[in-house]
């Protein structure tokens, strides 16, 4: 039984609005809502302010306090998500048991998909760095330092959240012209002891969140066209510790990763699932591969060329049997 809700549109305007919320082949920028709980600290508010600045303009900041506890009751988040057409949340909380608390939440179909709770251990804001800042709305280059982001389930979930939050995509090469002004570096570690058991939450390494502005400078070599890259820390600088993680429901996760069906014309043009031996390059040109049968050299016409002339009464069985006239 499908978990997706079905809403019957009353008119054409409602139908167009619902179609925009349907899964898209090329997803639009996801909107994130920053909401404060009843009790917050100055550190939490400042962290949320800088994360909001990095996410703009696809971000909504709620200035009022809300009686909200994501791990206990998700009804408020679902209400805000449906009202503002948002699928990402950052909730700031503070208590004696969990001081300086941040909860990252992802939604699917108006309901909570998964959540990650992180504690802020150390923080330096953008205002503390005397350096140029990136422009609003520019997508960052994201770098993850540590094998834990590929092998450990909790760090894999954090990597997925952050990539989804800043709409990151995997790149094989760095574009040097336009589009990149700052780099978000996320590092896990170091391990306090190589013998520590990572299944114990107390032994999990901290996550270091750093942001740098990127500047291209001349390499100093006229024959070397690729410039050097200079990084300058612009902030924020945040050290985070992992607290709680709510994993997604298997059926809901499967539905959230399902891709919409495509027309035959779109598939052949290179979108969606690629057709066998047909692909589209970066310029939009269609490239195909042809597989031919093995060539039979015994039927090759070589008598018209002196160098490939076949001797009388000589049977050609392989390439090695060809006699070349000097």
UniProtKB/TrEMBL annotation:
Which protein, by its recorded name, is this?
Ribosome production factor 2 homolog
Organism lineage: Eukaryota, Fungi, Dikarya, Basidiomycota, Agaricomycotina
Q: Name one GO cellular component term.
A: nucleolus
- Name the InterPro entries on file: Brix (IPR007109), Rpf2 (IPR039770)
Gene Ontology molecular function: any one: rRNA binding
Family (UniProt)? Belongs to the RPF2 family.
Source organism per entry reads: Kwoniella pini CBS 10737
The source's domain of life comes to Eukaryota
Spell out the PROSITE patterns in the cross-references: BRIX
Q: Name one GO biological process term.
A: ribosomal large subunit assembly
Domain Brix, which positions?
A: 30-251
Location relative to the cell: Nucleus, Nucleolus
List UniProt keywords, sorted A-Z. Nucleus
């Amino acid at each position: 039984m499908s978990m997706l809700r079905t809403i019957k549109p009353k008119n054409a305007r409602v139908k167009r609005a619902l179609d925009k919320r349907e899964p898209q082949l090329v997803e639009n920028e996801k909107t994130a809502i920053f909401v404060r709980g009843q009790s917050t600290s100055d550190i939490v508010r400042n962290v949320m302010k800088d994360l909001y600045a990095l996410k703009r303009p696809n971000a909504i900041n709620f200035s009022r306090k809300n009686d909200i506890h994501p791990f206990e009751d998700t009804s408020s988040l679902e209400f805000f998500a449906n009202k503002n057409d948002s699928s990402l949340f950052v909730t700031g909380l503070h208590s004696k048991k969990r001081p300086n608390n941040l909860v990252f939440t992802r939604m699917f179909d108006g309901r909570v998909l998964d959540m990650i709770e992180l504690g802020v251990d150390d923080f330096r804001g953008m205002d503390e760095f005397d350096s140029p800042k990136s422009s609003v709305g520019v997508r960052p280059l994201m770098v993850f330092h540590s094998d834990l982001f590929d092998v450990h389930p909790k760090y894999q979930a954090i990597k997925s959240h952050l990539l989804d939050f800043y709409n990151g995509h995997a790149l094989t090469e760095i574009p040097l012209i336009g589009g990149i002004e700052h780099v978000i570096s996320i590092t896990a570690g170091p391990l306090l002891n190589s013998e520590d058991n990572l299944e114990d939450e107390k032994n999990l390494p901290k996550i270091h969140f750093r942001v740098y502005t990127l500047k291209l400078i001349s390499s100093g070599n006229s024959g070397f066209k690729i410039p050097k890259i200079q990084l300058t820390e612009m902030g924020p600088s945040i050290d985070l510790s992992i607290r709680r993680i709510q994993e997604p429901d298997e059926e809901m996760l499967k539905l959230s990763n399902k891709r919409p069906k495509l027309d035959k014309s779109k598939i052949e043009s290179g979108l969606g699932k690629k057709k066998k031996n047909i692909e589209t390059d970066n310029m939009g040109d269609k490239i195909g591969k042809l597989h031919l049968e093995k060539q039979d050299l015994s039927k090759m016409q070589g008598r018209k060329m002196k160098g490939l002339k076949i001797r009388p009464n000589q049977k050609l069985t392989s390439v090695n049997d060809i006699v070349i006239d000097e």
